[in-house]
Design a protein that fits this description.
heterodimer, A: mainly alpha, about 0% strand, elongated, B: 1 helix
């Protein structure tokens, strides 16, 4: 069975049909520590690529706003108010209105998630 | 894969401010509701104790009376 081979062995080994991925490819986790052969469960193998795609999108889309972006946000609010005063609301297409509704719903969901975090539970206040 | 979309700063700002508002609202409401919960639990415990006391007395009385019906 493919166990722990030690430090200086070749990293590439031919993977057979029944080989298990022991996570470290047979190397010791740190140079000074004794060699261990951890068994990585199927959940790690399943979730690692999905976690990678999640981080790929989250690093661009879900990051909090920089301090430099806050003036732009305030300008956006002012732009919204001005367009409301000029009566652009009547020029709104239904598609645009639905899209804005979805965005507003998503912001509302963030509020609910924050409330769940603040009250320390998922369903109801555990007083 | 579809490239990640650049979210407008207004939406990002709104999201995270909603998150913070939600956290503060949740914690404030929890601290407001906590004494009511403790009061309820205290009252329930007292009522349960009184009920147990009444049940114990009723059982003792029942054991004491001697009728031929039992």
């Amino acid at each position: 069975m493919s166990g722990c081979h030690g430090h200086g062995d070749a990293v590439t080994r031919r993977t057979g049909a029944g080989d298990q991925d022991y996570g470290n490819q047979g190397r010791s986790p740190k140079p000074g520590l004794p060699c261990v052969a951890p068994r990585s469960p199927a959940t790690i193998n399943y979730s690692r690529p999905r976690l990678a795609t999640f981080w790929y999108y989250a690093r661009v889309e879900l990051t909090p706003p920089n301090p430099a972006e806050i003036p732009k946000a305030i300008e956006g609010i002012k732009g919204l108010m001005q367009s409301y005063k000029r009566g652009r609301l009547s020029e709104l297409t239904v598609r645009e209105a639905l899209r804005n509704g979805l965005v507003a719903t998503e912001i509302l969901f963030w509020f609910y998630i924050g409330e769940c975090i603040g009250k320390g539970g998922l369903i109801g206040y555990n007083v | 894969m579809v490239p990640p979309v650049q979210v407008s700063p207004l939406i990002k700002f709104a999201r995270y401010s909603a998150l913070l508002l939600g956290i503060t609202y949740g914690s404030i409401r929890f601290s407001y509701l906590k004494p009511y919960g403790e009061e309820d639990r205290r009252r329930e415990a007292e009522e349960k104790k009184q009920q147990e006391e009444a049940a114990r007395i009723a059982k003792e009385l029942e054991a004491q009376e001697d009728t031929i019906l039992k």
